[in-house]
Structures are given as C-alpha cells and as structure tokens.
Amino acid sequence: MSAFKKILIVVVIVAIAGGAVLWRKHRMAAQQPAQESSRASITVTAGVPQTRQWPLTIAATGSVEAWQLATIGAEISGVRIAEIDADVGDHVKKGQVLARLADETIHAALDQQRANVEKAKAALDQAVGNSKRAQMLKGTGALSDQQYTDYMTAEQSARADYNVAKAAQATQELNLGYATIIAPADGVIASRSAAVGAMVQAGTALFTLINEGRLEWRAAVTEKDIGLVKPDAAVTVMTLQNTAVTGKIRLISPTIDAATRDGLVYVSLPENDQIKQGMFLKGTIENGMHDIMALPEAAVVIQNGYSYVFTLGDGGKVAKVRVETGRRMENLVEIRGGITPDVSVAVKGAGFLNDGDTVKVMPSDGAETVAPPAPTPADATGERP
After folding, report:
1. Per residue, what are the HEC states of the chain?
2. Is the same domain home to 189 and 218?
3. Is the pLDDT of residue 235 over 90?
4. pLDDT > 90: what percent of the chain?
5. Which of 255, 267, 379, 382 has the maximal Cβ count within 10 Å?
6. Domains contained in the chain, number
C-alpha cells in the first residue's frame, strides 16, 4: 500500500472520530435543559411555623422510696430477744409493742439499786442528824473546829452518795423500759432482722419502719428540664401493670448530680398495692400549657436519624436545614430549634427534595397551613424526652 493511501485512511478515521465527539456533545447539550426542567418540575406547598399552646409533659424515671424510713433498734446491750410481736408488712400504731427483751437481769439490777438508794438514804439521815447536833454545840467548846468541819463534810458526802444511788436506780428503770421495743410512729414494717433468742447490743437494728406508710417517687429529671418543673404539679406514674397512679410533687431538689446531670423531683404517692418500695418506674410530669412552634409532619424529613426541613429561597431553590424536634400531636411536629418562626418551608413534597433543588411552589390559596385547633391535654401523645 502506497504512503498516500495510508495517509488518506488516517484522515478518514480522525474525521469519523471527531464527528462522533461533536455529535455526543450536541446530544448532551440537548438533554441538559430537559434534566433541569425535570428537576424544576417538583411542585410543593409552602408553610411557616405557627405558635400553638400545648400541654408540657416531662418524661422521667426513678425509684420508689419511703417518705421517711425509721430504723428501730435496741438501746441496751447484753440481753436476748424474748418475744417478737410484729413482722414485715404489718401496719402498726405509735407505741405498739414490736418485741420484748428478756428483763430478768434488769429487774435484778433495779432491785439492787433500790436497796442502794435506801442504804444511801439512811447514811444521809445519820449525817444530817450529826451535822445538826454539831451546829448546836458550836461555840460551846465541846467540839473542836476540825470535828465540826468533819460533820459538815460527812453530810455533803452522804447527800452526794444518795444522789448517785438515785441516778443509778433511774438508769435501771430506763433499761427496764428499753426492754420493750415499741413503734416510734404509725407506719408499716418494711424489714425485720430480730430473731427470738438472739443477743442484742445497743444500736442493733431490729426493724425498719416506713413512717405513716407513705411512699414517694424520686424522679430523675434532666438539668435542661428541671427548671420547668413546678411545685405541686400533677404527676402520672405508671406501675409495672401499666396502671396510671396520680401523685403530686412534694419538693424539687436544689442541686444537680455532677455525674448524671440530673436533679431529683420528690413526688408524693397515694397508697397503692401495685407500688412497692424499691421499684423503678416511669412517669410524666404535667406542667401546664406552654407556647411551642410547630410544623406539619409532612414538612419534617428524617434522614440518617436526624430531622430536616427544606427552606424556600429566591428563585424557588431549597436549602436543607437540620432542626431539633419535640412532641407530635394532631399531625404536627414541635420544632425546638434550627429555624426561626418567619422562615418559609416546603411541606407537601418535601420528602422528594434534595439540598439545592429548584421547586415550583403552589399558589398561596392552596398553600399548606398549620391550622388545626390547639390540642387539649387529653389529645397529647408525645412527651418531652
């Protein structure tokens, strides 16, 4: 093949390739307006956040504890338990006998002290008589000054011995009273460690008593929400049997736990067989009506576990904005942060949008509004997390 033919073939191939490239560019240029037109063909409705009054409920968890838990123990040492008259779960009255200690040795010690008192009284009477006679003889020369002083000192010493003996008798009488263990207040016996025959020491715990039988729910509330809690607010506590029990806030802790960042709210509970000390229960604190900002559910898009809305800008372009959401009621979502009340967002059709898309907005007469009536507490299905 001649050189001329080779050159001619190369020129033809280059011309064909160049034509293919130009045709492809022309085709892509023709398709681009169609694609842009397709992206701009998404029609949405627009809406703005609206202010609504919703009941504020704060969710919490916590343990059930005794309002006051009294430890009842022995006040004397070295005696055994002779009798037990109360057990766990018993409702007792103030002053009711719970147990009795063996008191034979206490009675014996008391009899001995009574005898010591009588002996000391006799010695005191004798010393008083001697001091009176010494006073009568003073100045007559029958007694020296030293003898007179001895009689006076003997009276003082005898009087002191008598007082010591009476104090010892009173101590034994107290010990005799301590041999009977009684309830310090009305309440329910929560635990019993006393056993017949066991030797006790002073301070040994024999019973624990739930004062007045009152229990309370100690709810842990986050540091963010505890400032919203009000004294005497109504609280609903759910038992493990899903029974709602209504209580009332007794007091709010003035401190926050540095480790958990929670504060305690003390809730008084009515007597209920389904609630026991030590249970861990859930509940909600009703905290009145509060103003919130809300959008229709269709306007909030969930992606990768986060909530977003698409704000409408100039030229119909949308911007994807992350928002903080709260409760949901009546097809509305509480918006706690991320946008301002005056921003316009896409509502219907928002789920099909991407950041930067261009959209067509339905005219205002067909625009989405946030117009459902304000929900009542009975309508509430969400809680503050």
Report:
1. CCHHHHHHHHHHHHHHHHHHHHHHHHHHHHHHHHHHHHHCCCEECEECCEEEEEEEEEEEEEEEEECCEEEEECCCCCEEEEEECCCCCCEECCCCEEEEECCHHHHHHHHHHHHHHHHHHHHHHHHHHHHHHHHHHCCCCCCCHHHHHHHHHHHHHHHHHHHHHHHHHHHHHHHHHHCEEECCCCEEEEEECCCCCCEECCCCEEEEEEECCCEEEEEEEECCCHHHCCCCCEEEEECCCCCEEEEEEEEECCCCCCCCCEEEEEEECCCCCCCCCCCEEEEEEEEEEEEEEEEEHHHCEEECCEEEEEEECHHHEEEEEEEEEEEEECCEEEEEECCCCCCCEECCCHHHCCCCCECEECCHHHCCCCCCCCCCHHHCCCCEC
2. no
3. yes
4. 63
5. 267
6. 4
